[in-house]
Write a structure and sequence with these properties.
Oligomer: heterodimer
Distance between the termini of chain A: 49 Å
Shape of chain A: elongated
Radius of gyration of chain B: 23 Å
CATH class of the largest domain in chain A: Mainly Alpha
Number of domains of chain A: 2
Shape of chain B: elongated
Number of strands of chain B: 0
Largest interface: A-B, 46 and 41 residues
Radius of gyration of chain A: 23 Å
Strand content of chain A: under 5%
Strand content of chain B: under 5%
Order of helices and strands of chain A: HHHHH
CATH architecture of the largest domain in chain A: Up-down Bundle
Structural class of chain B: mainly alpha
Number of helices of chain A: 5
């Protein structure tokens, strides 16, 4: 069939495919950079790091889950906000995966602290938990930076 | 505590992942191996912590789960950044033939 097409028809088909696939003139397979998500992730990382550092120096009962419900309520709300922003982004598969990992690790931290009952998590466990969070924040921030670098400032949408 | 041969474990992990990913494996191999090393190191730390009495049997699977979640996030970010690079390459390619395209269609299709 392609043998029947003239060179100009091949061009036309290629251009049509370009138009359909690219919705205009450039392809877009990734989310737009979201400065709010970027900022909220950094803020959450600071809160979490402060909490873990504080936890290493507390004694029972101040170190128990029951005495730190505020942190978990605030943290859950912050993650929910970030997940909503990721959900609202186009081409969000990777963002959702990263946010899902953050949410699971936060739930795991909560389970660890609940499991300690009336006692404190020791520094070995806290450090192991911390090392589970750090790559997630690094991944999210590196990805957001890549998205930021991928955008010309003049074409970035204003959706905030 | 039983011996834990990290090198042998890493080779088994890489072989299993390569089998699942097949053609995609070379694209993620270096990142994946780094993540496997972290998982293996976490296993070593957990084993040492359990032997020292600083990590309980209940805490061990949770800590391993946290490392697995972290690895998932790293690989997702790598995949995302690969897409960013692919997007840039395709847009650069289209940009390179912009004049030819716009001349052919008779209007500025490619800005």
């Amino acid at each position: 069939m392609f043998r029947l097409l003239t060179r100009s028809r091949v061009w036309s088909v290629a251009l049509t495919m370009l138009l359909v696939a690219g919705s205009g003139c450039a392809v877009k397979w990734t989310p737009y950079y979201d400065p709010t998500l970027d900022s909220k992730a950094t803020s959450f990382q600071q809160d979490l790091e402060s909490y873990l550092t504080k936890l290493e120096n507390l004694q029972a009962p101040a170190c128990t889950y029951q005495q730190n419900l505020d942190f978990y309520e605030k943290g859950s709300a912050e993650i929910a906000v970030m997940q909503t922003r990721a959900q609202a982004s186009q081409h969000n598969t990777q963002l959702l995966e990263i946010m899902g990992s953050l949410n699971k690790n936060f739930a795991d931290l909560k389970t660890l602290q609940q499991g300690a009952g009336n006692g404190c998590l020791n520094s070995t466990v806290i450090e192991a938990a911390r090392s589970g969070f750090e790559p997630i924040f690094e991944s999210l921030l590196a990805y957001e930076l890549a998205l930021k670098a991928n955008e010309a400032p003049a074409t970035a949408p204003t959706k905030h | 505590m039983a011996d834990f041969d990290v090198d042998a474990v890493l080779k088994s992990m890489a072989a299993a992942a390569a089998g699942v990913l097949q053609k995609k494996w070379p694209q993620v191999e270096s990142f994946a191996k780094t993540e496997f090393e972290k998982i293996a190191q976490t296993v070593v730390s957990i084993g040492e912590g359990m032997a020292a009495g600083t990590i309980t049997q209940d805490q061990a699977p949770i800590l391993l789960d946290m490392q697995k979640n972290a690895s998932r996030a790293v690989l997702a970010a790598v995949e995302g950044m690969t897409l960013v690079a692919a997007e840039q390459a395709v847009n650069a390619a289209i940009g390179a033939v912009k004049t030819a395209i716009n001349t052919f269609v008779g209007f500025p299709l490619v800005a």
